[in-house]
Amino acid sequence: PKLSLRFVLPDGSARHMQRDQAEPLGRALARIATNAAKGHGKAGKKSKKARAEGGAEGEAAVPAVRLFSRDGAAVAEEVPNAAAWQDGAVLHIGDARYRVERNPPALTELRLPRSLLAGFPVCPKVSAEFSAPQHCLFRWFREQRPAGGGDAAGEAWVEAAAAERVFTPSNALVGLRLKLRCTPGDGEQRYGPAREVESSGPVEAGPGACTFDARHLYTKKVCGHGSVRAVSYNILADTYAQTEFSRTVLYPYCAPYALEIDYRQNLLKKELAGYSADLICLQEVDKSVFVDSLAPALDAFGLEGLFRIKEKQHEGLATFYRRDKFSLLSQHDIAFSEALLSEPLHKELCEQLAKYPLVQEKVLQRSSVLQVSVLQSTTDPPRKLCVANTHLYWHPKGGNIRLIQIAVAMSHIKHVACDLYPNIPVIFCGDFNSTPSSGTYSFISSGSIAEDHEDWVSNGEEERCSMSLNHPFKLQSACGEPAYTNYVGGFHGCLDYIFIDKNALEVEQVIPLPSHEEITTHQALPSVSHPSDHIALICDLKWK
Prior knowledge:
Layout: E1 2-8, E2 14-20, H1 25-38, H2 42-52, H3 57-61, E3 65-68, H4 81-84, E4 90-93, E5 96-99, E6 106-111, E7 116-117, E8 125-129, E9 137-143, E10 157-159, E11 178-183, E12 195-198, E13 203-204, H5 213-216, E14 227-234, H6 238-241, H7 244-250, H8 256-259, H9 261-274, E15 279-286, H10 287-300, E16 303-309, E17 315-322, E18 326-331, E19 334-335, H11 336-342, H12 347-353, H13 357-365, E20 369-377, E21 384-391, H14 399-420, E22 426-431, H15 439-446, E23 448-449, E24 469-470, E25 475-477, E26 486-488, E27 491-493, E28 496-501, E29 505-510, H16 516-520, E30 537-543
Parallel strand pairs: 7-13, 14-15, 21-22
Antiparallel strand pairs: 1-2, 3-4, 4-5, 6-8, 9-10, 9-11, 11-12, 14-30, 15-17, 16-17, 18-20, 19-20, 20-21, 22-28, 23-24, 25-28, 26-27, 29-30
Helix pairs in contact: 9-10, 14-15
Subcellular location: Mitochondrion matrix
Family: Belongs to the CCR4/nocturin family.
InterPro entries: CCR4/nocturin_mRNA_transcr (IPR050410), Endo/exonu/phosph_ase_sf (IPR036691), Endo/exonuclease/phosphatase (IPR005135), PDE12-like_N (IPR048821)
């Protein structure tokens, strides 16, 4: 509803006004005139006094303000602002002339990450109006090293790199700060005013070799259009990594600086960018990490992100898809407890669960969510994909709770991939907190679970809840059953999977996991060379 108007007066003072779009132009021009008169500082004060005395000089201090259209005709004062201010129109304020630019590209936010490591990509956060990051111009500068201790005044910054949106500082820049100059553009050869941002600290030395370096040798290129590279990864939420309990009990072997979010984000962004993936499903994503770090970084590498927070928590799930391969058709996210109570789809399960009040209460207390996105191929539009992502309840004795959660998940996915979009293939990624010997794994891969399965009594007889469950899909774990996908001091096991629809998809290659030697170099995970306590699963799938 508001029109934002900015101009600089001949004396150098900037003016920023908000006017109603529907207001007649005459009122806006009168306001500009009084605003400009104020701009003359002491002269302004004098003119007020003169005006009070009815003197004629006072009137002269308020400049004549007119707006002329591109063809030179004066714009009538009753025309509303929205129609009056057109590109190329000319505003007269006294003797000054201004060319009107309507909706010029403008930066609203430009930020650099707090921590910069040599050899790791620096991805700025860029927000703009009437512009998109891919149309902006970027210029990177580094601090000049003081020659012989003296400061080269006026020449403190040297251009550092090719003009790219993402900049990876070399080891030669360790100890120097960076500066980015960004000029917003709209893709139509129109550019707005540039802004600059300097890094808060210098580039620091990176950790050297990381656990994912060898894996990147397999994923240098994006795979072809008939294939899909999928990644599933629990990235360890900052909420859990930075507690006293984590530092002293869970990960006492990990250097404290390597648990800090800024450090881990550097590793994570390099790791994820290097996989050249088409689909990335992440768990334990802090909301601020998604908004300020991952979404801007992966956007620069061609991926669009979707986020679903867990109720009552600061972390959730994120799904990224490659923009030039897929477009988003629809989203069908749910919270298990809410869906169980409110969706007719789960009525029968809900009634069965009601017979076991202790278990029911636990299930309903959990904040676990399921993210479901339906994607469509950009090159072959009839080809659609149902991508699901989840993080199930964590407790070692919570097998019965996980069975209920996965039952809700499978019913919901069936609703999307059988009812809403008949026969579309499913890819189901996540941290299922379930080993291959569990009821949950067995249920997903076999399609059913018996009511006498031992996981129904995973927390003792008093919490038994027995039911038989079914789902119609033929799913297989694309990466098989690795020895472990989670490796911490007190536990290692396989908890993460990428389940694929056997009828429609086949595995082209599985990117090997890091060697046991690499994982245990620093005892366990996370470490200075690995940003999470889990390991990413990566596979290339192709349509049958």
